[in-house]
Amino acid sequence: MTGELLVLLIVIITALAFDFTNGFHDTANAMATSIATGALRPKIAVALSAALNLLGAFLSVAVAATVAKGIVRLDAVHGHDLLIIVFAGLVGGILWNLLTWLFGLPSSSSHALFGGLIGATIAALGFNGVIWASGADGVVTKIILPAVLAPVVAAAVSAIGTWAVYRITRGIDQQRVSAGFRWGQIGSAALVSLAHGTNDAQKTMGVIFLALVAHGTLGQNDDMPLWVMAACACAIALGTYLGGWRIIRTLGKGLVEIDSPQGLAAESASAAIILSSAHFGLPLSTTQTATGSILGTGLGKHAEVRWGVMGRMVVAWGLTLPLAGVAGAICWAIAHLLGGLLGVLVVFALLVALSTLIYLRSRRDAVTGDNVNEWPGGGTQAANAAPAQI
């Protein structure tokens, strides 16, 4: 096996590791509200979400094309240099995902990936190596604008939906209303999981496609290989199945106390927006969309919103692109300084070591499916109010 082929294999493994972290980091986007309201038992929820993420990954490759061809100027870098950029960007994205997971912050896995790639590209090629804006393509149009608009639109749609639901059902016995909406939540949460697989698994497909182009295995205009789609689908599904319980707790219990009508409104709004973005090839942040939807349910019901928690989320969103970019740039610098296979192996070893430290730190205050509905100082309101349907 040649050194160049070994580097390619390490890049592909790292990409699938990112896809895995994307899965458990973003499980909350689909299932946090259903778990919080008791519509689904925690472990059944993550199993259902995993299966639908797996299926959703095969529905489209429009977002993958955006990632593969819409960020790095492929005509400006080739071969090993492009492989190192992709690898460094992935490491930056994984480290940011793990750090925000440790603190229970639902930041964007998509932006962590893009930030890592952009940082590594700037370190290697300068600012001109990134496609910032080019008609309908580029970072500004495809990433930044959707990031700004998605949570706002999701909050507005969810707030209107929540208000309408409570207006329509007023005067009806609330226990019957809650029971009916918990069944509805199962369907809407499933749709969000399907949408998440359609949108997020493709981002890793696009990165692996970049690596294969860099190695010369594929051309820029080739179709996405089926094995890439299958590998990414399995990686995100496995990560989803393990359940990102820390972030599920933040979204389900930390932002707004959610009843089942709110949960259905939030999930329906999220699914509609995520599927629409996937159709148009926009690599939308499913995390920001889901968070905006949950916030909207609180506004629509005039419920208490924990603005301090929301503020920490917004800060994390704002820091994701630049800090993941810094991590990607540092990883590129280390790999470039040491050179060749040695540089890649050293950065990979650093990734494994830091990931292990973060995991061990998380065990000090573990969050699992058994205590996911226990917000510190907040009780278990929704979960204890009624038994799970499934």
Short structural summary:
The chain has 390 residues and is mostly helical.
Question: What is the straight-line distance between the termini?
Answer: 50 Å
Helix content: over 70%
Shape annotation? globular
Mean pLDDT: 85
Low-confidence stretches: 380-389
Strand content: under 5%
Secondary-structure class = mainly alpha
Q: Profile the largest sheet.
A: none
The helix/strand order is: HHHHHHHHHHHHHH
Query: Can you count the beta strands?
Result: 0
| Distinct helical segment count | 14
Provide the number of structural domains.
1
Radius of gyration: 20 Å
Structural overview:
The structure is a single chain. The chain is an all-alpha fold and 390 residues long. It has one domain (3-363). It is built from 14 helices and no strands. It has helices at residues 3-37, 42-56, 62-69, 79-102, 109-125, 139-169, 174-215, 226-242, 245-254, 260-279, 286-301, 307-338, 340-362, 381-385. α1 runs antiparallel to α10 (260-279) and α7 (174-215) crosses α8 (226-242). It is globular and about 70 Å long. Mean pLDDT is 85; it is low at 380-389. This is Phosphate transporter. InterPro entries: Phos_transporter. It is found in: Membrane. Keywords: Membrane, Phosphate transport, Transmembrane, Transmembrane helix, Transport. It comes from Nocardia panacis.
